[in-house]
Amino acid sequence: ERTHLVLEQLELRKRGREKFRLADQLFFTRKGLEQSSGDAIATYKGSLFRRDTRTQVADLCCGIAGDAMQLHAVHDVVAVDWDPVHAWFAQVNLESVGYGRVAVLQRDVCTVELRDHWAWHLDPDRRADGRRSTQIDHYAPNASQIRKLLSRNGNGMIKIAPAADVPGDWLPTCERLWVGYDRACPQQLLLFGELAERVQSRSAVVIDDHGKERQSLHTIGEPPLPPLSAIGQFLHDPHPCVVAARLVSALALRANMSAVDRQVAYLSSDDPFDGALADSFRVVDIMPFDRRRLARYLQQRRIGTLEIKQRGVKIVPEHLRKELRLSGDQAAVLFLLPYQHRVTAVLSLRGE
Predict the structure, then answer these.
(1) Distance separating alpha carbons of residues 172 and 60, to the nearest angstrom
(2) H/E segment holding residue 347
(3) Left (φ > 0), alpha (ψ -120 to 50) or beta: where does 311 sit?
(4) Beta strand 278-288 with 234-238: parallel, antiparallel or unpaired?
């Protein structure tokens, strides 16, 4: 049994290095590692707890203390989790990075006296019934319990799924922020009270490995749809956090881009986009999608490395890759999308 536990920790630490700089000093559970923020996102979240003086913040449902370790860098933290294993791991992890004085409580987070704290962070369990959910009513704590926490202390940050809908009565008083990191959007944050810088807004923020903002986009309300036009010299793939925040139209208006189809989030223009909110690809060729024709085309151009991106079409990239039988020393990016009422293939080059 001890050997199994040691081997499991070695495996989890190996996986944990993708998220934590000090992973080899930390202890993980599988669930705790999967649900943890990681250094970059936790550092960014800590920066949102803006206050001139150091004060006390509660980290509720703290798990293995991924967020608490970074929150403690800017405020005094009380970490709370109902799970005794996670509470113990949180204490050990905080001690291992020199934060042994942080109080860790093993209790129901709904019983914490939040009036004793300036603000709080909550990472509710999205798998309370054993299955991952985007419905806040299925979280633990659930929406009703979270309302009670907000009534005791209005300065809250709540981590929810990127695709989760927010109860209508929360929208007038919160800021919704989607965090983008490493071409993924792992979290949506709800900011209330003093933590909300732009109440009623939707924000997409892309951060770097150090938790610093690279680029952001904000809007209140629904921006008008961008115009439809023919595909120009560049095709743009918005960052997943922009798509999750439903800010593709806002990005198009900001960067003078047009939509290529109302069904998909790809945008186009005659200039590359300079920033982290979208990747730009120089268009090489556009053709109706036909597997045999496409295979011949790629073989003639000696394209052996092909990145396949698709939206709005029922094509499995890995199945298509096998059918194309790629060979050669050239690389390209293939977009598959609905365009002018048919499935279209767009061959492009990345980063030009």
Answers:
(1) 24
(2) strand 342-350
(3) beta
(4) antiparallel
Token pair in block for residue 284: 């090489």
The H or E element spanning position 311 is none
Residue ranges of the chain whose pLDDT lies below 70: 1, 128-130, 352
d(CA 121, CA 59): 5
Amino acid at 265: A
Quickly count helices (H) and strands (E) in the chain: 10, 16
Q: How far apart are the first and last CA of the chain?
A: 54
Question: One-letter amino acid identity for 126?
Answer: R
CB atoms within 10 A of CB 56: 14
Structure tokens at 168: 């209508």
Give the other-Cβ count within 10 Å of 253's Cβ.
Answer: 16
φ, ψ (nearest 5 deg) of residue 308: -110, 125
pLDDT given at position 3 = 82
Give the whole-angstrom CA distance, residue 178 versus residue 188: 4
What would the two tokens of residue 67 be? 């967020």
Q: In the prediction, which pLDDT does 54 show?
A: 87
**Cβ atoms of residues 80 and 105 within 8 Å:** yes
Q: How far apart are CA 164 and CA 215, in angstroms?
A: 23
Torsion angle (degrees, nearest 10) of CA 264, 268, 273, 275 = -10
Tokens for 315, please give them: 């094509």
The set of residues, in sequence order, having a beta carbon less than 8 Å from that of 69 and lying 6+ positions away, is 42, 93, 94, 97, 99
Residue range 297-337, pLDDT digits in tens:
999 999 999 999 999 999 999 999 999 999 999 999 999 99
DSSP E strand boundaries for 172-302 = 174-181, 184-192, 201-207, 213-220, 234-238, 258-259, 267-269, 278-288
- How far is C-alpha 11 from the chain's CA centre? 24
Dig out the tokens for 27 from the structure.
Answer: 């202890």
* Residue listed under structure tokens 């109080």: 103
Instruction: Work out the angle at residue 285's Cα, subtended by the Cα atoms of residues 283 and 288, and round it to the nearest 5 degrees.
Output: 125
